[in-house]
Specification:
about 160 residues; alpha+beta; 5 helices; 6 strands; globular
Length: about 160
């Protein structure tokens, strides 16, 4: 397994089932730390629109709910999944609540936010809906602040570039 790839990690989905990120080899990914009670929560709908636009081309959105910022994710497990599906029709994978910053950050988010580990990006999530773009080989390509909408032309251009390679 490549050291500078997210494919080395295993995570748990919203129901607690282990998922290997190696299952996403060959796909472009937008990994987002989400929260159900945040001012940016409507981005869940935009994440679904982005997913729908590019999923046939080999693109996935991976949502990692987090309660790290102002306690804005009070829900747990399948309740988070139900919220995202019922309110925003989310069809992309939603994982279990995850710590995304600090010394207790999950191994995946430590990797995503540390250039020494991923070889490209040094930027820790500063709020909910921080986004990391990952290429087909599992390498971190870029990151976007919470204020950057998932359907922004900037993110779409980057996804198209990855999918064309």
């Amino acid at each position: 397994m490549e050291k500078n790839s997210i494919h080395q990690f295993k995570v748990k989905d919203a129901s607690g089932k282990e998922v290997s990120l190696a299952d996403y080899k060959g796909k472009a990914l937008l990994i987002v730390n989400t929260a159900s009670q945040c001012g940016f929560t409507p981005q869940l709908d935009d994440m679904e629109k982005l997913y729908e636009e590019f999923k046939e081309d080999g693109f996935e959105v991976l949502a990692f709910p987090s309660n790290d910022f102002a306690g804005q994710e009070p829900l747990d497990g399948e309740a988070i999944q139900q919220f995202c599906v019922m309110k925003y029709n989310a069809q992309y994978p939603i994982f279990e609540k995850t710590v995304v910053k600090g010394k207790d950050a999950s191994p995946l988010f430590k990797f995503l936010s540390d250039k020494k580990l991923n070889g490209k990006v040094s930027s820790k999530p500063k709020w909910n809906f921080y986004k990391y773009l990952v290429d087909k080989e599992g390498r971190v390509v870029d990151y976007y602040y919470s204020i950057t909408n998932p359907t922004s032309s900037k993110i779409k251009r980057s996804i198209k570039k990855i999918l064309a390679d």
